[in-house]
Design a protein that fits this description.
alpha+beta; Ubiquitin-like (UB roll); single chain
């Protein structure tokens, strides 16, 4: 399955990219599994996407969670929580 990834704010800065098109292995079917798959790249990927890090996920520009199933050609975005003030 091919999907579009987007990274925002401090996550984009840490990873050095705002996004990419990626073909996922057949066993990666949810947003949370994508996070695990990317974390397995190691280095800054493992650090920026670590389990303890508070990150938000959007699926096709709608808020989602780790259990959200993916679909061919979807957009998955990762970003830190935003606070106002």
């Amino acid at each position: 399955m091919q999907i579009q990834l987007k990274f925002f704010a401090s996550l984009r800065e840490a990873l050095g990219t705002s996004g990419e098109s990626i073909t996922l292995p057949t066993d990666v079917k949810t947003a949370g599994q994508v996070r695990e798959f990317l974390r397995a790249r190691g280095g800054v990927w493992a650090e920026a996407l670590a389990d303890g890090r508070a990150l938000r996920i959007a699926f096709n520009q709608q808020m989602a969670d780790a259990a959200t199933p993916l679909s061919e050609g979807c957009e998955l975005a990762f970003f830190p929580p935003v606070t106002g003030g």
